[in-house]
């Protein structure tokens, strides 16, 4: 057991190999960091010293019908250790954590915290045992202050008033001890995403959590916020806490953890000390095969298909509205739009998809002014859309694969005659898409909600790309997908580009943007920066634009 | 106790859920019968015999099922698109009013022309009545459960006003009832001398037609898509609001046919007790059928059988016929639970 936390090695991994990371000088420029000068804490324990096991999951097996979500998984967490739980979507990470938290009851196996068994199926017991969870989607009351959110639910019901002074003192001490800056009286609604996450962590600490579980904690953070989070986590384990870090991002896992457990298909695929493994090895463990990005060959630039000139929107979509945004999409290119979520990506995607009109500015299609279009018109104009949320917007879960695939084209001659649908033609089409897009699904009549996220996304890709659209709007097309499915989505986008389509790739994953895009721009508070060609801006420069620095100068 | 999601059940299993709901309902009713001091077995036997034990009983059950098929279809169509039409009762009366207005001599035409015209006019009236709540829902987000439910009371008061005023039968000895429709406006009886009329045949045809619309047409596809996930439907280019309008028109029209068929086929005139809550029972019928138009036929006959059988039973067993209302209401609750169980598994710990 030589799983010592080698700070130096970690820092190296953080700085060099991780593409989505801003290190070094970038730090000073970013004001939202709690302690700009905070350095990594000293290693809490010497190497080789036997460490107390705080949490033990033993032989956990959980079945849902024929599906084995967890197949006899064991996990030990030592005091002062960060264990990363790595796996594709559907690998069983969430099920395992739900069992730990008593939301599900395991069919076999048990959980022990601090040497004592946890009664199965009792969420309260996990909390009382000192296990805290920070969910990917925060559970904060927006209209209440930080202090109220943290203290909420910790006080006995018969106490009529919140003891604010005591709560304030405690929060101040926790903030100071762990470097989690938080203004107790600020309303949560006014906080940035990174700050909200700190509040979530404070909330868990306030409840005396000794074991912290973070579920995809960086999904909504800028690279610099992520890095600040990682340093906080190091501080926490330095003070004797233990952390389980759930992720499917390899660079984060290698940057922050001491030990990595890889889940694949509900089984433990491997366990490695972080210092003794590589990202390539972890990726192979995760998918069970090697994956590589398809080569991007140069294709001739097409004309300007779509131009947005000082376009604003009215705020119908979530997040910031577009604010005099400028954008030019050309044929045969992938245009990458980076940015932290909520900065107007939804509005831009909605505008191009036909779900939200513009309120000002000009939209030019093939050089001619065009009024904002409806969703139906967008399809007629040859715009293929891959929506951000494939469950809520992209698919109709309780309808079949075939029914979902014809949703955009059921009125065409191919599928309907005089108001009657030709289900034979729809099924034939569905079989074609299933075969062409390598979808794993038993039949066109399967309900789409039974498919995995990756297969769902392949069907959405098939629906959007089969008519060979001239413009492809892909909003977060790979979010939450496993490595294999991500590679597939990328290949299809590159294929559309090769066909001469203009592909707009909206993503929060800088690595993805940088790898795929011919030109890159950053969206911040509804403004779109001037684009840069492949390789013109470094990841760090893009990261600073994402944080809102120097956008005005650039734009 | 907790709920865990589970994979979709097989078709055979799906068919078992309504059966289970009915069995649970009977079990609950048995307790009430025991409380009333009678033997459940003999009471259920009496109900069954009263509902289907003789030609008379069977004819009576099918007659009672006719308006329930119409209202059940109306609800099934609307609920499929998640348009919560609780106002089938009002739409039924709208159809009945139109039937009386046009059918009491205003249009002196032969049956073959007059009956289709009245049917269409009645459907239009019911459709328009639901269009208002649907518009309020799509335009202003007003909850259609509230508006359609309240329209039931408005409509009943309106009918009451008509029956005390312009539609009052001058020869009716002061009762609040309308004149009888003329012979040309009446639906003929299927068997001479029995109460079962061609409204039942129209109801069966309507069920098949609605089934075809839901399964085979673009409109049915749109309605199901909007019902399952309006946001995804809108994103895919389905005109959600227009689909909801069409759904409202279809649903209101079907419910109005219940009023038409009761007046033109059975009662002959309009009274305030034309419908003993067919509009509400239609909800149970539709739910028991799991919103399947062809299933509506079976569940309407079943629900009608309970009502008819309970009437017969109460005459001989001395258990109040209200047991039928309790059973139908219980059937709705057990069916809602059964539908929940098609998607979730209950874990006891």
TrEMBL record, chain B:
Keywords: Cell membrane, Membrane, Transmembrane, Transmembrane helix. It comes from the Bacteria. The keyword Lipid metabolism does not apply. InterPro entries: ABC_transp_permease (IPR001851). It holds the Pfam family BPD_transp_2. It is found in: Cell membrane. GO terms for cellular component: plasma membrane. The keyword Cell membrane applies. One of its GO terms (molecular function) is transmembrane transporter activity. CDD domains: TM_PBP1_transp_TpRbsC_like. The chain crosses the membrane at residues 12-36, 56-78, 90-107, 113-136, 148-167, 196-214, 280-310, 322-341. It is a multi-pass membrane protein. This is ABC transporter permease. It comes from Kumtagia ephedrae.
């Amino acid at each position: 057991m030589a799983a010592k936390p080698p700070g130096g090695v970690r820092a190296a991994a953080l700085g060099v190999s991780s593409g989505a990371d801003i290190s070094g000088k970038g730090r000073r420029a970013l004001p939202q960091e709690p302690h700009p000068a905070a350095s990594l804490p000293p290693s809490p324990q010497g190497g080789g010293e036997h460490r107390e096991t705080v949490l033990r999951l033993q032989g956990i097996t959980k079945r849902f019908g024929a599906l084995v979500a967890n197949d006899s998984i064991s996990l030990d967490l030592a005091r002062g250790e960060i264990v990363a739980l790595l796996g594709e979507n559907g690998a069983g990470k969430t099920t395992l954590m739900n069992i730990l938290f008593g939301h599900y009851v395991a069919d076999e196996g048990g959980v022990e915290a601090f040497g004592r068994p946890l009664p199965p199926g009792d969420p309260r017991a996990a909390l009382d045992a000192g296990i805290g969870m920070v969910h990917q989607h925060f559970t904060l009351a927006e209209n209440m202050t930080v202090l109220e959110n943290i203290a909420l639910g910790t006080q006995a019901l018969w106490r009529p008033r919140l003891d604010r002074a005591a709560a304030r003192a405690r929060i101040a001490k926790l903030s100071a001890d762990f470097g989690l800056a938080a203004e107790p009286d600020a309303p949560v609604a006014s906080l940035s995403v990174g700050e909200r996450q700190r509040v979530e962590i404070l909330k868990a600490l306030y409840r005396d959590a000794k074991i912290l579980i973070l579920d995809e904690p960086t999904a909504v953070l800028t690279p610099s916020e992520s890095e600040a989070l990682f340093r906080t986590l190091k501080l926490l384990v330095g003070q004797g806490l233990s952390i389980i870090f759930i992720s499917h991002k390899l660079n984060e896992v290698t940057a922050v953890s001491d030990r990595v457990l890889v889940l694949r298909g509900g089984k433990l695929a491997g366990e490695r000390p972080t210092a003794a493994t590589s990202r390539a090895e972890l990726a192979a463990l995760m998918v069970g095969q090697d994956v590589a990005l398809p080569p991007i060959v140069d294709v001739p630039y097409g004309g300007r298909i779509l131009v947005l000139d000082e376009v604003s929107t009215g705020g119908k979509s979530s997040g910031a509205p577009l604010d005099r945004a400028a954008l030019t999409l050309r044929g045969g290119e992938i245009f990458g739009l980076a940015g932290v979520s909520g900065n107007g990506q939804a509005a831009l995607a909605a505008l191009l998809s036909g779900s939200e009109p513009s309120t000002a500015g000009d939209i030019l299609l093939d050089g001619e002014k065009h009024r904002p279009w409806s969703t139906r018109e967008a399809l007629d104009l040859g715009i293929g859309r891959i929506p951000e949320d494939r469950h809520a917007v992209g698919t109709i879960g309780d309808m079949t694969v075939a029914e979902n695939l014809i949703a955009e084209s059921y009125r065409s001659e191919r599928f309907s005659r005089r108001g009657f649908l030709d289900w034979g033609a729809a099924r034939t089409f569905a079989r074609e898409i299933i075969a062409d897009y390598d979808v794993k699904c038993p039949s066109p009549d399967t309900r789409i909600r039974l498919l995995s996220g990756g297969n769902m996304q392949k069907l959405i890709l098939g629906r959007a790309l089969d008519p060979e659209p001239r413009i492809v709007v892909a909003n977060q097309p790979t979010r939450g997908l496993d490595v294999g499915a991500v590679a597939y989505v990328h290949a299809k986008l590159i294929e559309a580009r090769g066909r001469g389509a203009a592909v707009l790739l909206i993503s929060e994953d800088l690595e993805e943007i940088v790898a795929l895009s011919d030109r890159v721009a950053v969206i911040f508070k509804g403004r779109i920066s001037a684009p840069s060609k492949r390789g013109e801006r470094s990841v760090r420069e893009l990261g600073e634009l994402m944080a809102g620095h120097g956008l005005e100068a650039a734009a | 106790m907790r709920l865990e999601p589970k994979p979709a059940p097989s078709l055979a299993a799906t068919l078992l859920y309504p059966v289970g709901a009915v069995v649970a309902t009977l079990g609950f009713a048995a307790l009430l019968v025991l409380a009333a001091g009678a033997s459940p077995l003999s009471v259920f036997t009496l109900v069954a015999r009263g509902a289907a034990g003789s030609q008379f009983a069977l004819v009576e059950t099918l007659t009672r099922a006719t308006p329930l098929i119409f209202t059940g279809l109306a609800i099934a169509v609307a609920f499929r698109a998640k348009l919560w039409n609780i106002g089938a009762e009002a739409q039924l009366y709208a159809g009945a009013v139109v039937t009386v207005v046009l059918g009491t001599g205003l249009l002196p035409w032969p049956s073959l022309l007059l009956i289709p015209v009245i049917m269409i006019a009645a459907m239009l009236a019911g459709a328009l009545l639901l269009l208002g709540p649907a518009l309020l829902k799509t335009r202003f987000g007003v909850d259609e459960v509230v508006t359609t439910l309240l329209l039931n009371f408005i409509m009943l008061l309106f009918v009451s006003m008509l029956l005390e005023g312009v539609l009052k039968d001058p020869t009716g000895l002061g009762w609040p009832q309308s004149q009888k429709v003329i012979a040309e406006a009446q639906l003929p009886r299927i068997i001479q001398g029995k109460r079962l009329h061609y409204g039942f045949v129209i109801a069966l045809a309507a069920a098949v037609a609605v089934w075809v619309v839901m399964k085979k047409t673009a409109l049915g596809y749109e309605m199901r898509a909007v019902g399952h996930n309006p946001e995804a439907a809108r994103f895919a280019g389905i005109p959600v609001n227009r689909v909801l309008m069409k759904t409202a028109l279809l649903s209101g029209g079907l419910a109005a046919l219940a009023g038409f068929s009761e007046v033109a086929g059975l009662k002959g005139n309009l009274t305030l007790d034309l419908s003993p809550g067919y509009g509400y029972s239609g909800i149970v019928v539709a739910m028991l059928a799991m919103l399947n138009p062809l299933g509506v036929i079976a569940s309407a006959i079943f629900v009608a059988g309970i009502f008819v059988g309970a009437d017969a039973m109460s005459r001989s067993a001395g258990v109040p016929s209200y047991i039928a209302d309790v059973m139908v209401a219980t059937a709705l609750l057990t069916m809602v639970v059964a539908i929940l169980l098609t998607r979730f598994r209950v874990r006891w710990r």
